[in-house]
Amino acid sequence: MQSPPLPDALVCRGIGRLLRGRGVLRQPAIYVHTNSMEHRGVRYVIRIGIARGQWQVAVYLPGKEFPKETTVVGTRQAAEAAASSIINAWLKKRFRENTIS
Question: How many degrees, rounded to 5, is the angle at CA 96 between CA 90 and CA 101?
Answer without folding.
Answer: 130
